[in-house]
Amino acid sequence: MAVERTLVIIKPDAVKKNAVGDIIRILQENDLKLLAIKMVHLSKEQAKRFYIVHKDRPFYDELTDFMSSGPCVPMVFEGENAISRVREIIGATDPAKAAEGTIRRKYGTDVGRNAVHASDSPESAAYEIPFFFNQLEIHQQ
Ligand code: RTP
Ligand code: MG
């Protein structure tokens, strides 16, 4: 088992649903420590840079329009196997296919508006965490 850090974003749809507090609670109750948090409204260009791995996907334009449509809440969480555990807690990309009890099942609307993002690998986390946070903004707990 390894202690990992992962980048989670509460997406604009879930911010609008007043789900920020509940999503943080769910993650913290799963032994994940909150090390960093802020609220930002990404520009279209910033959203495109964040999701650059998807630049050739058909949903890239729609995804980056949505992610720049309102404020979102990026956070860093730390814990044992945090990357894969957070992905499980969040559930499948399509909220309709997400397991009962997952965050996307509870707060997602459709595959585009699915409430949360989480890093999918150590390589992704290494790109995504410094995208939003510098060293002074990440706090050891
Ligand atoms: P995320 O990166 O946001 O945590 O989501 P994910 O890993 O579960 O899914 P990924 O394949 O990385 O896709 C990134 C986001 O693009 C949107 N998407 N739309 N219309 C579509 O078929 C489609 N497929 C993906 C979703 O919002 C997904 O979260
Ligand atoms: Mg992804």
TrEMBL record:
Sorted alphabetically, which InterPro entries does this protein's record hold? Answer: NDK-like_dom, NDK-like_dom_sf, Nucleoside_diP_kinase, Nucleoside_diP_kinase_AS
Indicate the enzyme's highest-level EC class: transferase
User: Which catalytic residues are annotated?
Assistant: H117 (pros-phosphohistidine intermediate)
Key word Phosphoprotein present in the record?
A: yes
Enzyme Commission code: 2.7.4.6
Catalyzed chemical reaction(s): a 2'-deoxyribonucleoside 5'-diphosphate + ATP = a 2'-deoxyribonucleoside 5'-triphosphate + ADP; a ribonucleoside 5'-diphosphate + ATP = a ribonucleoside 5'-triphosphate + ADP
All copies of the Nucleoside diphosphate kinase-like domain together span 3-140
Compartments (UniProt record): Cytoplasm
Recorded hits in CDD domains, A to Z, give:
NDPk_I (cd04413)
| Necessary cofactors | Mg(2+)
**GO MF entry, a single one:** metal ion binding
Subunit and interaction comment: Homotetramer.
Q: Which family does it belong to?
A: Belongs to the NDK family.
Mind telling me what this protein is named?
Answer: Nucleoside diphosphate kinase
Lineage at the top is: Bacteria, Pseudomonadati, Aquificota, Aquificia, Desulfurobacteriales
